[in-house]
Amino acid sequence: MRKIIFLIIISFLYACRIDTVEKYVKADSYKGVVTKIYQDKKNHMAYTFEIKSSDGEIFKDDFDVWPYIWDYAKVGDSIIKPADTLMIIVKKRDNSYKEFFYHF
To answer: How far, in Å, CA of 50 to CA of 58, rounded?
Structure first.
């Protein structure tokens, strides 16, 4: 009985965490150009993109929750994360693009 209660509690906590992360990701928005792609040794080898926004700000983001984006995106590509979505668009210089959807 204790094992079942423990599993229910763990499942509930995990579901709450996913819901919180998805809300944060969904609310986030940005647009910029990929300046660097690497696996971050300080963050469990997560695929990380360094992005320069149009106002010159450079920020880093973990892209492990966007499956296969790291195989498609290259330095110089545009990254667009619209607000209120769980999607990222990678736009190439030839105007081709691909949409990637959040997966946790």
So the answer is: 7
Integer Cα distance of 34 and 53 in angstroms: 9
Give the DSSP H/E element, type plus range, for residue 48: strand 46-53
Backbone angles phi, psi at 55, to 5 degrees: -90, 10
Q: What is the pLDDT of residue 79?
A: 95
Which has the closest alpha carbon to 39: 87, 82, 71?
Answer: 71
The pLDDT score that the predictor gives to residue 57 is 87
* CA angle, residues 31, 45, 26, in degrees to nearest 5: 35
Regions of the chain where pLDDT drops below 70 = 5-24, 104
